[in-house]
Hints:
The complex is a heterodimer. Helix content of chain A is 0%, strand content 51%. Chain A is built from no helices and twelve strands. Chain B is an all-beta fold. In chain B, strands 2, 4, 5, 6, 9, 10 and 11 form a seven-stranded mixed sheet that branches. Chain B has a four-stranded antiparallel sheet with strand order 1-3-8-7, with no helix packed on it. The interface between A and B is medium-sized, with 24 and 22 residues.
Amino acid sequence: AQKVTQAQTEISVVEKEDVTLDCVYETRDTTYYLFWYKQPPSGELVFLIRRNSFDEQNEISGRYSWNFQKSTSSFNFTITASQVVDSAVYFCALLGSGSARQLTFGSGTQLTVLP
Amino acid sequence: DVKVTQSSRYLVKRTGEKVFLECVQDMDHENMFWYRQDPGLGLRLIYFSYDVKMKEKGDIPEGYSVSREKKERFSLILESASTNQTSMYLCASRDGQRYQPQHFGDGTRLSIL
């Protein structure tokens, strides 16, 4: 069975602070994909990034960066210089290659950025 | 841009009613999904479909059925609504490659009274 844990239920920061959202996963598959989605108050989940298990290179996209570490089964997401518009629920998700062939989502982290 | 449209943002129904949630996508995607989202539980897969008239159960199919008569439309049916089906329902679509990201609709917040 595969599992995704987002231990931080809610995080609140003040604008311009950096914030890291944690994601820890469990899978027995050697090939798998990890995703991050953002769900703003409007409700629609917006795809942010996909990583495959063979690519441990960290990625930066503007104020967003992702740290993938297979040794600790983690795929953490950092927002630098947070803005009020970053306020949303963020989901980490895992796609395995074995018997569980559909996305498994974490429970999500509610990020609130205060002005 | 992919557009996934869910027919209602908010819906209120009564216990025992038959409820239809509709989802339409405009990108000719083969795969479509229905999830429910509950606080502390994230998204859980109810049913998915990889082709017209094809469907497979997800993690929590009990009390639900689905219909896919046309490629662009995927319907979720609550045969006899119950209060424990009060939730946010999200539809998604994806092209044929399994590792491609799913595209989501805005969600339907369903209340069963």
